[in-house]
Structures are given as structure tokens and as C-alpha cells.
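Hi R.,

As promised on Friday, here is the backbone we talked about, encoded as C-alpha cells. Could you run it through your design pipeline when you get a chance and send me back a sequence?
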């Protein structure tokens, strides 16, 4: 399963780590985050696609958290950041190390390339401002490279 839930939800890793069974509904999950240290929690509903639904349905119910330690003295406790897991996955796959946050950028870019409106992507990412979403989209959008490689490009 690995990183499927982060990619298919466009969630921040902390939002996934805090996902509780009470936040899992038939067609969506509820993610919660704080925009600032002392701010209130904000929540958003993320529709479940087939892959995310399959991952959540495959998780054993051990405690209140969907993604938690499965055994040992920490069984049922939510995960922390899990950077070691990401390093291990990248090493085992033989790819350059990347982070959970890179998955948000990549997922947002894929949605934009598929023609999803920026306002919808903004909601899915949980951004308060569209300018933040635009920064995500500019970071790895393949269409920018294609535009620059186009022989008809004005540059």
C-alpha cells in the first residue's frame, strides 16, 4: 500500500496520520488541519476514488486511527511523519528520494493537466488562496517543458 493514500487523497502526511475511522464515510473522507499554530482546525471533504477506497477498506481496524501501528507496544497509535518509510520505499524501488509533500505537487499537476479547474484543485489541496495552488502547479507541470521545447515557441 505504501504511499497510495497520500497520492490519491492529495493530503498532507499529517492529515493522513490523523485520519480516524470516524472520518471515513461512504464516498469521502474528512481531513483536518491547522493553518497556523494557534488556529482552529479546518476540515474538508475529499471524495474517495477507487484506489483510495480500496486502501482504506483493506486496513484492519485496530484503534481509532485508520493508518496506525499494527503491532507491538505502539499498536493502535497513529503514525508520526514516517520519513524512514519513504526513504526505504525509494531505495527499494531504485528511485531518487522524494517526500510525501512531492506527491501533493505531483497529484495537483496531474489534475491540472487533465483539465480540472484550479478552484477544484485548490479545494482538494486545502489551500486558502489560489496563488498557493498555482505555485504547486508551476513546480512540475510537464506542459511548461513541452511549451519551451516547441519549435514554434516565441522564446
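Update: got your reply. Pasting your designed sequence below so it's all in one thread:
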Amino acid at each position: 500500500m505504501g504511499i497510495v493514500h497520500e497520492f490519491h487523497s492529495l493530503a498532507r502526511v499529517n492529515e493522513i496520520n490523523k485520519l480516524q475511522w470516524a472520518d471515513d464515510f461512504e464516498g469521502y473522507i474528512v481531513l483536518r488541519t491547522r493553518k497556523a499554530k494557534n488556529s482552529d482546525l479546518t476540515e474538508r471533504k475529499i471524495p474517495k476514488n477507487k484506489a483510495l477506497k480500496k486502501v482504506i477498506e483493506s486496513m484492519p481496524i485496530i484503534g481509532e486511527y485508520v493508518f496506525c501501528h499494527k503491532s507491538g507496544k505502539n499498536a493502535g497509535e497513529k503514525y508520526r511523519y514516517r520519513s524512514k518509510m519513504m526513504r526505504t520505499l525509494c531505495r527499494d524501488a531504485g528511485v531518487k528520494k522524494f517526500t510525501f509533500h512531492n506527491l501533493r505537487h505531483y497529484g495537483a499537476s496531474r489534475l491540472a493537466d487533465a483539465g480540472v479547474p484550479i478552484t477544484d484543485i485548490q479545494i482538494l489541496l486545502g489551500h486558502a488562496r489560489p496563488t498557493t495552488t498555482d505555485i504547486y502547479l508551476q513546480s512540475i507541470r510537464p506542459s511548461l517543458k513541452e511549451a519551451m521545447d516547441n519549435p514554434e515557441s516565441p522564446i
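One thing I noticed while checking it: The chain has two domains: 1-80, 99-149.

Thanks again,
M.
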